[in-house]
Amino acid sequence: MKSGFDVDQFIEQIVTGLSIGSILLLVALGLSIIYGSMGIINLAHGEFVMLGAYAAWVFHTYLGLGLLASLVPIFLVVAAFGWIIERFVLSLLNNRPLDTILATWGVGIMLQQAVRLSVGSELRYVQLPPALSDSMNVFGIPISSYRVFLFVVSIALFGATWLLMNRTTVGMKLRAIIQDRSVAASFGINAKRVYALTFAYGAGLAGLAGALVSPLKSVSPDMGTGYVVDAFMVVVLGGVQSLAGTVASAFILGELSGGIAFLQNDTVAKAIVLLAIVVLIRFRPEGLFTARVRA
């Protein structure tokens, strides 16, 4: 064991934690919108991430589009699919949370099998954008340019989502529905349309997350399973209806996972992080960044 304090190693671990946190934020942001605003426990969220990754592979393989050029089409395609799922499946299950859980679980299984039947179960790979394939120096430490790009994109998407929820008509209508759906309806707010748009946006964000992480991970039909667990951990830790809490918890978990993985390994890191979240839920079920509600 090395003695003394290694500044370069410390900075490297901080940057590694930020990189993990940015990926967690990308994956969890869409779930935070759907779960926090609509109260839907979307077990198909990981499959939306998987669809985004496969869409990136399809656009590159068959259309010749690079990853950066295909991000907007991927968002629109996965968002459209999410809109269809909400309008024709989830909207029929209002106030039936157990049925919603089973429905999204079933949708996830069908998506996995559909991908296996259409493109096979072989691992697929997405090329790293050439412009971001090099590294840059951060405090004298070489850091992947693409991981810096992921960090910037994750913060930008959070900013766009915050503006959508707090500074647009759709966001205002959604917050009104959350407060009291019947009163919102009396003012002419179409809850079904707002919910469909919200779910579509959350699904589109998940698709973007899948596309953005695809150069770092192999693409497979079951790749979303681990991501949906990570996303729920982030949302629960941050607080169900707190976007800022989602950001904070993503980077807290990123730094914690990176640090423990450095000292031990990835398996031990995941186990300790999960145990810490279980303990947190026992004593603070509303999450770290949600104000307690007095009785």
Walk me through what this model shows:
This protein is 72% helix and 3% strand. The chain has eleven helices and two strands; from the N terminus they run H-H-H-H-E-E-H-H-H-H-H-H-H. The protein has a two-stranded antiparallel ribbon. The longest helix has 32 residues, at 7-38. The chain is globular, with a radius of gyration of 20 Å. The termini are far apart.
Question: Would you spell out the secondary-structure blueprint of this structure?
Answer:
Elements: H1 7-38, H2 45-63, H3 67-88, H4 97-119, E1 135-138, E2 141-144, H5 145-167, H6 169-179, H7 181-186, H8 191-213, H9 224-238, H10 243-263, H11 266-283
Any descriptors?
two-stranded antiparallel sheet, mainly alpha, 11 helices, 295 residues
Distance, first to last CA: 51 Å
The computed structural class is mainly alpha
The dominant shape is globular
Residues in helices, as a percent range: over 70%
The main pleated sheet reads as: 2 strands, antiparallel
Quantity of strands, as a count: 2
Low-confidence stretches: none
Strand order of the largest sheet: 1-2
Rg of Cα set: 20 Å
Instruction: Please report the number of helical segments.
Output: 11
- Overall average residue pLDDT: 86
Beta-strand residue percentage = under 5%
Helix-strand sequence:
HHHHEEHHHHHHH
In short:
With 295 residues, the chain is an all-alpha fold. It has helices spanning 7-38, 45-63, 67-88, 97-119, 145-167, 169-179, 181-186, 191-213, 224-238, 243-263, 266-283; strands spanning 135-138, 141-144.
